[in-house]
Structure formats: C-alpha cells, structure tokens
Amino acid sequence: MDMTPNQKFLASKLVFKATALIAKHQRQCLKRGEISADSIWTLSDLKDRIWKDFVSNDKFKDFVEPFKGKSKATILKGLEEMFLGKTPYSKQFLAGLKVYAEHLMNVASSLSSDIKKKKLSKLRKEINKLSKGIKSELNKKPAKAPSKKQIEKEITQKLKRFHRNWQNASRSDWEKRYRVTYQVMLEMSPKWKYDVIKRDPDDKLSVELSKRVVSTVDDSYEFAKFMDEVAGFKQLSENLKIEVMMIANLAAEPRKSADKSPPDNQDTISEW
Fold first, then answer.
1. Is 144 exposed, middle or buried, given 0-12, 13-18 or 19+ CB atoms closer than 10 A?
2. Which of 46, 61, 103, 131 could form a disulfide with 41 if both were Cys (CB 3.0 to 4.6 A apart)?
3. Strand (E) positions, 72-170?
4. Do residue 99 and residue 221 come from a single domain?
5. What pTM was estimated for this model as a whole?
6. Is the confidence at residue 204, as pLDDT, over 70?
7. Enclosing domain of residue 26
8. Structure confidence at residue 196 (pLDDT)
9. Cβ proximity of 207 and 149 under 8 Å
10. Do 171 and 131 sit in the same domain of this protein?
11. Mean pLDDT, to the nearest integer, of 205-232?
C-alpha cells in the first residue's frame, strides 16, 4: 500500500494507540480470569501484527485517504478525539477494536496450543525412543561371568608375562623401580631405623637397605614377594602402593626398544 508521509504518520500513530488499547484490554481480561496467559501478545508482536492487518485492509485505505493533505497537528488532534469518543465514528471504531482484540487473543491461544502440541509430540517420540532403548538393554542377556578356572588361568598367564618381561625394560623404568622400591622400604621401616637412615646415608642400616633394594628389584620373583608385603602393609600410603602396582603392570607390557640390562646399581642408589 502506497502512502504519503502524512498518511504513514497517521498509520503509525493509529497503530501505536491501537496497540496500547488492545494491550490494556488483554491485561483486564487476564486479571478477570477470562483468558489464560497463553492468549497474551507481547507488545512488539502485537504492534507488528496490527500494522500488517491494518495496511492490508481495504477499509483502512479508505480511512487514511482523506488525510493526504492534512498537517501532523490536525492528524494528532483527530486521532485523540476519536479515541476519546468525541467523533461520530468513535463508538463504531472502538467497538471494532474490542472485537479485533478478542480475535487476536484467540489467535494467540491457538498458536500457543499448536506449539504445545508440537512440543508434546516431540517429547512423546523421545520417550518412546528411550523406552525402546531401555527394553532393548533389559532384554540383552547378561555377560557370562568368568569361571574360577578361567580367572586362575588368566592370573597364571599374567604372572608368566610379568616374570618373562621383567628384564625387558628401559633404563628409566629400572631407575623408577629402584627409586620407588627404596622409598617404600624406607617407609615400611620402624621409626628408629627410618630416623637413622634419613640422618646418615653412610650408616650400616642405610647400606643394608640399599642392598636389599637392589636384590629385590633385580629378581622378578623377589619383587613379586615384595608386592605381597606392600599390599598387606596398612600404614603405607595408597600413592606408594599404586606406584608399586604400576611398576608391575609396566613389566607385563614390554617395550620394543628397551635396554634389557639394569643400570649401574651404585650410580642409581647414589641418585636417591
């Protein structure tokens, strides 16, 4: 619809006032409990909808036609009088706006209902999908628990790998074995012995501990016995117990390029 600047001014002011009036009517109906909150339009949506409805209506074209040459002041005065009921057309115009407001509320309620139906339909589909997934999982046969014989066989194989691969380790692995074993044995020592070793690295007790560390680490069977001691020693921290277990696990996974010979024991011990 082509309009002159003054006609556009009239249309915008008319839409603004109509929006305010219809919004007020909506709030009153909601307060009286005549409509639900789903039937309420936001101001921006209401304004857009009224503008589209007005400019597409043939009667609206006839309404703005006489205002082509009118000034903005005259337009504003005429609109004010019409909304205040001071013109011959006021009663009919205001009654039409009321009917139009109820129509918009019905539209809003219908749109809200459609949206709810779509959301509900989507939710039902998701619930059905989830339900099928749960039934599928419940109908699955539980995995058969390994027998005692299978468990024993697996443990035996793991122990064989552990002993077979013990020498197949890198220099850094060997150094870690000595370091962790030394720390654990020291922590497992009685307090008086612990204090002597910490105070004097050259003491007889310190030398004996270092020798025991070397003999334990160099022999996989001795280290396996040591692991049993560690597992049963309650005063030892969980972190150190885990370190010992990690050493054993690494031994079961040999590296392709490994230095199979242990490092010089004395050099390693001096680094502790």
1. exposed
2. 46
3. none
4. no
5. 0.41
6. yes
7. 5-136
8. 92
9. no
10. no
11. 90
